C-alpha cells in the first residue's frame, strides 16, 4: 500500500483559479521529478470522495484554515516523496509564486550543507516558492521564514487557549524547543531573468518524538488536558503569518522585524569564541565576543572585550555555526 501511495502527487487550490491551474498543470504534464520511481499526478477533486488515510495530510482542513491572498493557495501533496524541496526548486518556472509542496514522509530530505534531515511520519515537511528582485535581501528571507514558524505556533496555542510552546530560533536557520532541535529551515535560490527564485523548505517535528523531540510531546508535559497540534493548522497558520511578515519585510526592510526576531532567537548577549589569525598569519588565536544582533547583510553583529564591533561568519567547515566562527572587524 505504501509503495502505491509513494507515486501519487495530488494537486489542488484554495479557489477556482488555483484549481483551474492544477487542471492545466496535470493536462500539460510538465512537472519534473528527481525520484527514481514514477510519480503520477491527480487532482484533489478526483480523490476527494475516496477513502483517505486518516494519518495523511488533510487537504480540506488546511484550505479551510488558510486565509492568504497568495502564499500556500496552490498545493501539491504526496504521502511519500523524495524531497518537497526538489519538487518546487526543479519546477519553479511552472508553478505560481507561493505554491507549496507538502509530504507525509520524505526519503531524501536535506538540510543545510547537504546534511540529511530525518523525515518520519508526524513531521511537517513542506517547501514553497518566493520570488525576489533585490539580491541584497535574499539572505535575510530565511529569518522571516523562521520567525513565521515561531509566530504560527504561538498563534495556534493562543487560539486554542493552551500553554504556549516557546519555540526559539538558533541562528541562522534551526528551531529549538526546551534545548532540543525540533525543526529547520532551508532556503536556496537561483537567478534567472533578473529575479531570484527562492525555494524555502521547512521541517518541523509535530508528532514525531524521534530523532529529538516534538511539539506535541512537550505540550503533553505542560497541560493536564489532552491537546495535540495538527500539521494542517500549523502550515496554514505559517502562511497566514508569513504573508504578513513578508509584506512588512519587503516594504520596510528586516530592521522593522528585528525587535520581534530578537525576542524569539537564542543569542542576545551570548558570549562565543571566535578564531583570529595573528599578524604573522601562522597561528590561530581564540577570543571571546558578545553577540549584539544582526548586521544588515544578515551575519552576526558582535562586540569584543576591547569594544571593537565585528561581523561573525561561519568558517564553512563546522557543522555547528557557532564552532569555528571567524570575525571581520567593522569600521
Automatic annotation (TrEMBL):
GO cellular component: cytoplasm
Keyword Aminoacyl-tRNA synthetase: no
CDD domains: BPL
Listed SUPFAM superfamilies: Class II aaRS and biotin synthetases (SSF55681)
Domain BPL/LPL catalytic: 60-250
InterPro entries documented for this protein: aa-tRNA-synth_II/BPL/LPL, Biotin_CoA_COase_ligase, BPL_C, BPL_LPL_catalytic
Keywords: Ligase
Keyword Zinc-finger: no
Pfam families given in the database record: BPL_C (PF02237), BPL_LplA_LipB (PF03099)
GO terms, molecular function: biotin--[biotin carboxyl-carrier protein] ligase activity
Family recorded in the similarity comment: Belongs to the biotin--protein ligase family.
Protein name: Biotin--protein ligase 2-like isoform X2
Source organism (scientific name): Coffea arabica (Arabian coffee)
The organism's taxonomic lineage, starting at the top: Eukaryota, Viridiplantae, Streptophyta, Embryophyta, Tracheophyta
Gene that specifies this protein: LOC113712607
Amino acid at each position: 500500500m505504501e509503495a502505491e501511495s509513494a507515486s501519487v502527487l495530488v494537486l489542488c487550490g484554495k479557489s477556482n483559479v488555483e484549481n483551474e491551474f492544477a487542471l492545466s498543470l496535470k493536462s500539460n504534464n510538465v512537472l519534473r521529478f528527481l525520484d527514481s520511481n514514477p510519480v503520477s499526478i491527480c487532482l484533489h477533486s478526483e480523490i476527494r470522495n475516496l477513502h483517505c488515510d486518516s494519518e495523511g495530510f488533510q487537504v480540506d482542513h488546511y484550505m479551510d484554515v488558510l486565509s492568504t491572498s497568495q502564499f500556500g493557495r496552490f498545493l501539491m501533496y504526496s504521502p511519500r516523496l523524495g524531497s518537497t524541496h526538489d519538487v518546487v526548486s526543479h519546477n519553479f518556472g511552472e508553478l505560481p509564486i507561493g505554491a507549496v509542496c507538502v509530504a507525509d514522509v520524505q526519503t531524501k530530505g536535506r538540510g543545510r550543507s547537504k546534511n540529511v534531515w530525518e523525515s518520519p511520519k508526524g513531521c511537517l515537511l513542506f517547501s514553497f516558492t518566493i520570488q525576489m528582485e533585490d539580491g541584497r535581501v535574499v539572505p535575510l528571507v530565511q529569518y522571516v521564514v523562521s520567525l513565521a514558524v515561531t509566530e504560527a505556533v504561538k498563534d495556534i496555542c493562543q487560539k486554542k487557549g493552551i500553554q504556549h510552546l516557546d519555540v526559539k530560533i538558533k541562528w541562522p536557520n534551526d528551531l529549538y524547543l526546551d534545548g532540543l532541535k525540533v525543526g529547520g529551515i532551508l532556503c536556496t535560490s537561483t537567478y534567472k531573468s533578473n529575479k531570484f527564485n527562492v525555494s524555502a523548505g521547512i521541517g518541523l517535528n509535530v508528532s514525531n518524538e524521534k530523532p529529538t523531540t516534538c511539539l506535541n510531546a512537550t505540550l503533553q508535559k505542560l497541560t493536564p488536558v489532552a491537546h495535540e497540534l495538527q500539521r494542517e493548522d500549523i502550515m496554514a497558520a505559517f502562511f497566514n503569518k508569513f504573508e504578513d511578515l513578508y509584506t512588512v519585510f519587503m516594504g520596510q526592510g528586516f530592521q522593522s522585524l528585528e525587535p520581534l526576531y530578537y525576542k524569539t532567537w537564542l543569542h542576545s548577549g551570548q558570549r562565543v569564541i571566535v578564531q583570529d589569525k595573528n599578524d604573522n598569519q601562522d597561528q590561530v588565536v581564540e577570543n571571546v565576543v558578545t553577540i549584539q544582533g544582526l548586521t544588515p547583510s544578515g551575519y552576526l553583529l558582535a562586540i569584543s572585550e576591547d569594544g571593537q564591533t565585528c561581523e561573525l561568519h561561519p568558517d564553512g567547515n563546522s557543522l555547528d555555526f557557532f564552532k569555528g566562527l571567524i570575525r571581520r572587524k567593522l569600521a
